[in-house]
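Q: I'm writing a short explainer about LPS export ABC transporter permease LptG for a general audience and would like to include a description of its predicted shape. Could you first generate the structure from this sequence?
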Amino acid sequence: MLLNRLDRYTARTVLVSMFMVQVLLLGLDFVINFISDIEDVTDSYTTFNVLFYTFLRLPWRFYQYAPVSVLIGALVGLGAMASNNELTVMRAAGRSLLRILWSVMKPLGLVIIITMLVGEFAAPWSEQYAQSFRAEQRQGSSVASEDGGWQREGDSFYRFGSIRTDDTVIDFNRYRYDGQQLVEAQHADRVVHEDGQWVLHNIRTTHINDDNTTTSTRESATWQTSLTPELLRLIITDRDSRSMTDLWRYAHYLNSQGLSATSSWLYFWQKLLLPLMLASLVLVAASFVFGPLRSVAAGTRVFYGTIVGLTFKYLQDLLAPAATVFGFSPIWAILTPTLGCFLLGFYLLRRSA
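A: Of course. Here's the predicted structure. Afterward I'll give you a sentence or two in plain language.
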Protein backbone atom coordinates (compact mmCIF):
# COMPACT_ATOMS: atom_id res chain seq x y z
CA MET A 1 0.00 0.00 0.00
CA LEU A 2 2.82 2.38 0.93
CA LEU A 3 4.64 1.64 -2.31
CA ASN A 4 1.51 2.39 -4.32
CA ARG A 5 1.10 5.69 -2.47
CA LEU A 6 4.69 6.61 -3.26
CA ASP A 7 4.11 5.75 -6.92
CA ARG A 8 1.00 7.93 -7.04
CA TYR A 9 2.76 10.78 -5.25
CA THR A 10 5.74 10.70 -7.59
CA ALA A 11 3.53 10.45 -10.67
CA ARG A 12 1.29 13.29 -9.48
CA THR A 13 4.23 15.57 -8.70
CA VAL A 14 5.85 15.03 -12.10
CA LEU A 15 2.55 15.31 -13.99
CA VAL A 16 1.62 18.59 -12.28
CA SER A 17 5.07 20.00 -13.08
CA MET A 18 4.73 19.04 -16.75
CA PHE A 19 1.29 20.64 -16.87
CA MET A 20 2.50 23.88 -15.26
CA VAL A 21 5.46 24.13 -17.66
CA GLN A 22 3.17 23.51 -20.65
CA VAL A 23 0.72 26.19 -19.50
CA LEU A 24 3.57 28.66 -18.96
CA LEU A 25 5.06 27.98 -22.42
CA LEU A 26 1.66 28.24 -24.12
CA GLY A 27 0.90 31.48 -22.29
CA LEU A 28 4.20 33.07 -23.30
CA ASP A 29 3.84 31.85 -26.87
CA PHE A 30 0.27 33.20 -27.06
CA VAL A 31 1.31 36.67 -25.91
CA ILE A 32 4.39 36.81 -28.15
CA ASN A 33 2.52 35.68 -31.28
CA PHE A 34 -0.40 37.99 -30.57
CA ILE A 35 1.92 40.99 -30.26
CA SER A 36 3.83 39.90 -33.39
CA ASP A 37 0.64 39.62 -35.48
CA ILE A 38 -0.80 42.94 -34.28
CA GLU A 39 1.16 44.72 -37.02
CA ASP A 40 -0.96 42.87 -39.62
CA VAL A 41 -4.19 44.47 -38.38
CA THR A 42 -6.27 46.12 -41.13
CA ASP A 43 -9.85 47.27 -41.49
CA SER A 44 -10.92 43.72 -42.38
CA TYR A 45 -8.41 41.85 -40.19
CA THR A 46 -9.14 43.33 -36.78
CA THR A 47 -7.47 42.91 -33.40
CA PHE A 48 -10.21 40.49 -32.39
CA ASN A 49 -9.47 38.41 -35.52
CA VAL A 50 -5.79 38.27 -34.54
CA LEU A 51 -6.78 37.16 -31.04
CA PHE A 52 -9.08 34.47 -32.42
CA TYR A 53 -6.43 33.27 -34.91
CA THR A 54 -3.81 33.02 -32.16
CA PHE A 55 -6.26 31.11 -29.97
CA LEU A 56 -7.03 28.64 -32.78
CA ARG A 57 -3.33 27.76 -33.07
CA LEU A 58 -3.02 26.71 -29.41
CA PRO A 59 -3.56 22.95 -30.09
CA TRP A 60 -0.69 22.96 -32.58
CA ARG A 61 1.50 24.92 -30.19
CA PHE A 62 0.61 22.42 -27.46
CA TYR A 63 1.88 19.62 -29.67
CA GLN A 64 5.06 21.50 -30.56
CA TYR A 65 5.96 22.29 -26.95
CA ALA A 66 5.25 18.77 -25.63
CA PRO A 67 8.89 17.56 -25.71
CA VAL A 68 10.19 20.70 -23.95
CA SER A 69 7.44 20.68 -21.32
CA VAL A 70 8.02 16.97 -20.62
CA LEU A 71 11.76 17.46 -20.20
CA ILE A 72 11.61 20.60 -18.06
CA GLY A 73 8.54 19.37 -16.16
CA ALA A 74 10.32 16.14 -15.19
CA LEU A 75 13.38 18.12 -14.13
CA VAL A 76 11.30 20.52 -12.02
CA GLY A 77 9.13 17.80 -10.44
CA LEU A 78 11.94 15.40 -9.59
CA GLY A 79 14.21 18.31 -8.66
CA ALA A 80 11.68 19.56 -6.11
CA MET A 81 11.49 16.08 -4.60
CA ALA A 82 15.29 15.92 -4.49
CA SER A 83 15.52 19.35 -2.82
CA ASN A 84 13.06 18.21 -0.15
CA ASN A 85 15.11 15.01 0.35
CA GLU A 86 12.07 12.95 -0.63
CA LEU A 87 14.04 10.94 -3.16
CA THR A 88 16.73 10.28 -0.55
CA VAL A 89 14.13 9.00 1.90
CA MET A 90 12.66 6.74 -0.79
CA ARG A 91 16.09 5.30 -1.55
CA ALA A 92 16.81 4.83 2.16
CA ALA A 93 13.48 3.01 2.55
CA GLY A 94 14.66 0.44 0.02
CA ARG A 95 13.02 1.84 -3.08
CA SER A 96 15.22 1.10 -6.08
CA LEU A 97 16.23 3.64 -8.68
CA LEU A 98 14.43 1.69 -11.39
CA ARG A 99 11.20 1.65 -9.34
CA ILE A 100 11.36 5.44 -8.92
CA LEU A 101 12.05 5.82 -12.61
CA TRP A 102 9.03 3.62 -13.40
CA SER A 103 6.92 5.89 -11.18
CA VAL A 104 8.05 8.83 -13.31
CA MET A 105 7.29 7.02 -16.56
CA LYS A 106 3.69 6.21 -15.56
CA PRO A 107 2.30 9.76 -15.99
CA LEU A 108 4.24 10.00 -19.25
CA GLY A 109 1.85 7.45 -20.73
CA LEU A 110 -1.07 9.83 -20.17
CA VAL A 111 0.91 12.73 -21.64
CA ILE A 112 1.78 10.65 -24.71
CA ILE A 113 -1.85 9.66 -25.33
CA ILE A 114 -3.10 13.25 -25.02
CA THR A 115 -0.27 14.64 -27.18
CA MET A 116 -0.75 12.01 -29.91
CA LEU A 117 -4.51 12.65 -30.02
CA VAL A 118 -3.97 16.40 -30.23
CA GLY A 119 -1.33 16.01 -32.94
CA GLU A 120 -3.41 13.58 -35.01
CA PHE A 121 -6.85 15.15 -34.75
CA ALA A 122 -7.19 18.50 -32.94
CA ALA A 123 -4.06 20.28 -34.19
CA PRO A 124 -4.46 19.55 -37.95
CA TRP A 125 -8.12 20.63 -37.89
CA SER A 126 -7.58 23.79 -35.82
CA GLU A 127 -4.48 24.77 -37.80
CA GLN A 128 -6.30 24.36 -41.10
CA TYR A 129 -9.25 26.37 -39.81
CA ALA A 130 -6.93 29.07 -38.44
CA GLN A 131 -5.08 29.47 -41.73
CA SER A 132 -8.29 29.61 -43.79
CA PHE A 133 -9.83 32.08 -41.34
CA ARG A 134 -6.83 34.41 -41.59
CA ALA A 135 -6.63 34.10 -45.39
CA GLU A 136 -10.33 34.93 -45.70
CA GLN A 137 -10.08 37.95 -43.41
CA ARG A 138 -6.91 39.26 -45.07
CA GLN A 139 -8.11 38.63 -48.62
CA GLY A 140 -7.16 41.46 -50.91
CA SER A 141 -4.51 42.86 -48.58
CA SER A 142 -0.83 43.12 -49.46
CA VAL A 143 0.11 40.39 -46.98
CA ALA A 144 -2.36 37.77 -48.18
CA SER A 145 0.23 36.05 -50.39
CA GLU A 146 2.47 34.99 -47.52
CA ASP A 147 0.64 31.73 -46.84
CA GLY A 148 -0.63 28.94 -49.07
CA GLY A 149 0.69 26.31 -51.43
CA TRP A 150 1.82 26.07 -55.05
CA GLN A 151 1.10 23.43 -57.68
CA ARG A 152 1.85 23.07 -61.39
CA GLU A 153 -0.58 21.46 -63.81
CA GLY A 154 -0.04 21.58 -67.56
CA ASP A 155 0.89 25.10 -68.69
CA SER A 156 -0.39 26.73 -65.50
CA PHE A 157 0.98 27.43 -62.04
CA TYR A 158 -1.50 27.66 -59.18
CA ARG A 159 -1.27 29.32 -55.79
CA PHE A 160 -3.88 28.50 -53.17
CA GLY A 161 -4.23 30.68 -50.08
CA SER A 162 -5.91 28.13 -47.82
CA ILE A 163 -8.63 25.51 -47.75
CA ARG A 164 -11.46 25.37 -45.24
CA THR A 165 -12.85 22.26 -43.60
CA ASP A 166 -15.82 22.37 -46.02
CA ASP A 167 -13.41 22.04 -49.03
CA THR A 168 -13.68 25.72 -49.98
CA VAL A 169 -10.42 27.18 -51.29
CA ILE A 170 -9.74 30.79 -50.30
CA ASP A 171 -7.61 33.11 -52.48
CA PHE A 172 -7.13 31.20 -55.76
CA ASN A 173 -4.56 32.38 -58.31
CA ARG A 174 -3.69 30.88 -61.67
CA TYR A 175 -0.74 31.90 -63.87
CA ARG A 176 -0.84 30.49 -67.42
CA TYR A 177 2.29 30.46 -69.59
CA ASP A 178 2.97 30.08 -73.29
CA GLY A 179 6.48 28.71 -73.15
CA GLN A 180 8.38 31.20 -71.01
CA GLN A 181 5.87 33.99 -71.51
CA LEU A 182 3.15 34.76 -68.97
CA VAL A 183 -0.06 35.21 -70.96
CA GLU A 184 -2.81 35.13 -68.34
CA ALA A 185 -3.24 35.78 -64.62
CA GLN A 186 -6.50 34.79 -62.97
CA HIS A 187 -7.75 35.41 -59.44
CA ALA A 188 -10.85 34.07 -57.68
CA ASP A 189 -11.95 34.96 -54.17
CA ARG A 190 -12.97 31.39 -53.48
CA VAL A 191 -13.34 28.00 -55.13
CA VAL A 192 -16.14 25.70 -54.00
CA HIS A 193 -16.31 21.96 -54.62
CA GLU A 194 -19.88 21.28 -55.76
CA ASP A 195 -21.33 18.08 -57.27
CA GLY A 196 -17.90 16.61 -57.99
CA GLN A 197 -16.44 19.70 -59.68
CA TRP A 198 -14.72 22.93 -58.74
CA VAL A 199 -16.54 26.24 -59.21
CA LEU A 200 -14.66 29.58 -59.17
CA HIS A 201 -16.45 32.60 -57.67
CA ASN A 202 -15.75 36.33 -58.14
CA ILE A 203 -13.23 35.85 -60.93
CA ARG A 204 -10.87 38.52 -62.27
CA THR A 205 -8.76 37.57 -65.29
CA THR A 206 -5.91 39.63 -66.73
CA HIS A 207 -4.83 38.85 -70.30
CA ILE A 208 -1.24 39.88 -71.00
CA ASN A 209 -0.53 40.81 -74.61
CA ASP A 210 2.67 42.02 -76.26
CA ASP A 211 1.74 45.70 -76.02
CA ASN A 212 -1.08 45.89 -73.45
CA THR A 213 -3.15 44.07 -70.86
CA THR A 214 -6.91 43.60 -70.63
CA THR A 215 -9.00 42.65 -67.62
CA SER A 216 -12.32 40.85 -67.48
CA THR A 217 -14.54 39.72 -64.61
CA ARG A 218 -17.05 36.93 -64.12
CA GLU A 219 -19.21 35.87 -61.22
CA SER A 220 -18.50 32.13 -61.57
CA ALA A 221 -16.98 29.47 -63.81
CA THR A 222 -15.99 25.83 -63.56
CA TRP A 223 -12.35 24.84 -63.09
CA GLN A 224 -11.26 21.69 -64.91
CA THR A 225 -8.52 19.97 -62.91
CA SER A 226 -7.44 16.57 -61.68
CA LEU A 227 -6.83 17.94 -58.17
CA THR A 228 -9.20 16.55 -55.55
CA PRO A 229 -10.11 18.26 -52.25
CA GLU A 230 -7.99 15.73 -50.36
CA LEU A 231 -4.94 16.38 -52.54
CA LEU A 232 -5.43 20.15 -52.37
CA ARG A 233 -5.58 19.96 -48.60
CA LEU A 234 -2.25 18.11 -48.57
CA ILE A 235 -0.69 20.68 -50.91
CA ILE A 236 -1.86 23.71 -48.95
CA THR A 237 -1.42 22.53 -45.36
CA ASP A 238 2.04 22.85 -43.83
CA ARG A 239 3.75 19.48 -43.58
CA ASP A 240 4.59 19.78 -39.90
CA SER A 241 0.94 20.37 -38.96
CA ARG A 242 -0.48 17.41 -40.90
CA SER A 243 -1.69 14.21 -39.31
CA MET A 244 0.28 10.98 -39.72
CA THR A 245 -2.35 9.67 -42.12
CA ASP A 246 -2.06 12.73 -44.35
CA LEU A 247 1.74 12.64 -44.25
CA TRP A 248 1.70 8.98 -45.27
CA ARG A 249 -0.63 9.64 -48.20
CA TYR A 250 1.22 12.74 -49.37
CA ALA A 251 4.62 11.02 -49.18
CA HIS A 252 3.34 8.17 -51.36
CA TYR A 253 1.80 10.71 -53.76
CA LEU A 254 5.14 12.51 -54.13
CA ASN A 255 6.97 9.22 -54.63
CA SER A 256 4.46 8.21 -57.31
CA GLN A 257 5.18 11.52 -59.10
CA GLY A 258 8.92 10.91 -58.95
CA LEU A 259 9.41 13.75 -56.44
CA SER A 260 11.34 13.81 -53.18
CA ALA A 261 9.22 13.02 -50.13
CA THR A 262 12.01 13.27 -47.56
CA SER A 263 10.44 16.10 -45.55
CA SER A 264 7.06 14.35 -45.45
CA TRP A 265 8.63 11.10 -44.27
CA LEU A 266 10.64 13.06 -41.72
CA TYR A 267 7.54 14.56 -40.11
CA PHE A 268 5.78 11.20 -40.32
CA TRP A 269 8.51 9.42 -38.38
CA GLN A 270 8.73 12.33 -35.97
CA LYS A 271 5.06 11.92 -35.07
CA LEU A 272 5.15 8.12 -35.01
CA LEU A 273 8.24 7.98 -32.78
CA LEU A 274 7.04 10.73 -30.44
CA PRO A 275 6.48 8.30 -27.50
CA LEU A 276 10.07 7.09 -27.80
CA MET A 277 11.34 10.69 -27.98
CA LEU A 278 9.43 11.75 -24.87
CA ALA A 279 10.57 8.66 -22.93
CA SER A 280 14.21 9.42 -23.79
CA LEU A 281 13.86 13.02 -22.58
CA VAL A 282 12.28 11.91 -19.29
CA LEU A 283 15.13 9.43 -18.83
CA VAL A 284 17.67 12.24 -19.34
CA ALA A 285 15.79 14.44 -16.85
CA ALA A 286 15.76 11.67 -14.23
CA SER A 287 19.45 10.91 -14.79
CA PHE A 288 20.32 14.58 -14.28
CA VAL A 289 18.38 14.78 -11.01
CA PHE A 290 19.90 11.58 -9.62
CA GLY A 291 23.31 12.50 -10.97
CA PRO A 292 25.06 15.84 -11.59
CA LEU A 293 22.05 18.10 -10.83
CA ARG A 294 21.03 16.47 -7.55
CA SER A 295 21.82 19.41 -5.28
CA VAL A 296 21.64 22.46 -7.56
CA ALA A 297 18.98 25.16 -7.58
CA ALA A 298 15.76 24.75 -9.56
CA GLY A 299 16.74 27.53 -11.96
CA THR A 300 19.95 25.69 -12.84
CA ARG A 301 17.99 22.52 -13.62
CA VAL A 302 15.65 24.47 -15.90
CA PHE A 303 18.65 26.03 -17.62
CA TYR A 304 20.31 22.68 -18.29
CA GLY A 305 16.99 21.20 -19.34
CA THR A 306 16.53 24.00 -21.86
CA ILE A 307 20.04 23.43 -23.21
CA VAL A 308 19.38 19.70 -23.64
CA GLY A 309 16.01 20.36 -25.29
CA LEU A 310 17.49 22.87 -27.72
CA THR A 311 20.40 20.54 -28.51
CA PHE A 312 17.93 17.74 -29.19
CA LYS A 313 15.87 19.93 -31.52
CA TYR A 314 18.82 21.44 -33.37
CA LEU A 315 20.37 18.02 -33.91
CA GLN A 316 17.14 16.84 -35.50
CA ASP A 317 17.00 20.01 -37.61
CA LEU A 318 20.56 19.42 -38.82
CA LEU A 319 20.00 15.77 -39.63
CA ALA A 320 16.83 16.51 -41.60
CA PRO A 321 18.57 18.21 -44.58
CA ALA A 322 21.45 15.76 -44.22
CA ALA A 323 18.99 12.95 -45.01
CA THR A 324 18.25 14.68 -48.32
CA VAL A 325 21.89 15.42 -49.16
CA PHE A 326 23.39 12.05 -48.22
CA GLY A 327 20.37 9.93 -49.08
CA PHE A 328 19.89 8.05 -45.79
CA SER A 329 16.44 7.28 -44.40
CA PRO A 330 14.71 10.20 -42.60
CA ILE A 331 13.92 7.86 -39.70
CA TRP A 332 17.55 8.14 -38.61
CA ALA A 333 17.20 11.91 -38.29
CA ILE A 334 14.68 11.17 -35.54
CA LEU A 335 16.23 8.06 -34.03
CA THR A 336 19.80 9.35 -33.71
CA PRO A 337 19.06 12.13 -31.14
CA THR A 338 16.58 9.83 -29.37
CA LEU A 339 19.08 6.99 -29.03
CA GLY A 340 21.70 9.54 -27.93
CA CYS A 341 19.40 10.67 -25.09
CA PHE A 342 18.79 7.06 -24.03
CA LEU A 343 22.52 6.33 -23.95
CA LEU A 344 23.27 9.53 -22.01
CA GLY A 345 20.47 8.80 -19.54
CA PHE A 346 21.51 5.19 -18.91
CA TYR A 347 25.15 6.24 -18.51
CA LEU A 348 24.37 8.89 -15.90
CA LEU A 349 21.93 6.63 -14.05
CA ARG A 350 24.51 3.85 -13.92
CA ARG A 351 27.06 6.22 -12.44
CA SER A 352 24.63 7.42 -9.77
CA ALA A 353 23.26 3.95 -8.87
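A: For your explainer, you could say: Residues 97-137 form the longest helix (41 residues).
Q: Perfect, that's easy to follow.
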